[in-house]
Write a structure and sequence with these properties.
Layout (H helix, E strand, L loop, with lengths): L17 H10 L3 E6 L5 E6 L2 E3 L4 E7 L3 H8 L2 E7 L3 E2 L6 E14 L3 H13 L5 H11 L3 E17 L2
Antiparallel strand pairs: 1-2, 1-5, 3-4, 4-8, 5-7, 6-7, 7-8
Helix pairs in contact: 3-4
């Protein structure tokens, strides 16, 4: 018997190895962050992630206020879900894809210099132009909030639609 609050995967034969789950997370360009929203209702918001191998955390950026931030300040528990592009069966309709869910707690990055550096690293995944990135940081960097999802449990799964 385990004391873990996380369930074992029911379809364990489809479970990804830890390394394969990290491959999916590193490549993910977007996913959905789910939190406990107003009135205890679920709230999911699409976000662009940045997985940092050095810290073992997922990083996000956004506005300093709003529904998501209010929810995270009330309850730091969250999960983030990504799905890769998948592969379609040759000549068929079925798709085989990998999904990963990261359960954890959010920590806000209070150090502005650290937050800006994380924004640079995240932005390089989407925009190869350092000049464009630096212009965006100059324009909006003072208004950005960066937070990390500190994993407590990561699970990945290979799904074949059929």
């Amino acid at each position: 018997m385990t004391d873990s609050p996380f369930r074992p995967m029911r379809r364990f034969k489809q479970q990804l190895s830890d390394e394969e789950a990290l491959v999916v997370l590193r490549a993910a360009r977007r996913g959905v962050l789910s939190v406990t929203g107003d009135g205890g209702r679920p709230y999911g918001i699409p976000l662009n992630p940045f997985w940092d191998d050095e810290t073992g955390r997922l990083y996000f950026h956004g506005a300093r206020e709003g529904h998501k931030i209010d929810a995270l300040r009330r309850d730091s528990r969250a999960c983030f879900t990504v799905i890769d592009e998948g592969v379609r069966d040759e000549g068929g309709w079925a798709l085989t894809f990998r999904s990963v869910v990261v359960f954890g707690r959010v920590e806000f990055i209070e150090d502005q210099a650290e937050a800006i550096e994380i924004c640079r690293r995240l932005a390089r995944r989407f925009n190869p132009s350092d000049a464009d990135i630096e212009e965006e940081i100059r324009r909006a960097g003072a208004h950005v909030l960066v937070f990390a999802l500190v994993p407590e449990h990561i699970t990945g799964k290979r799904v074949h639609e059929a």
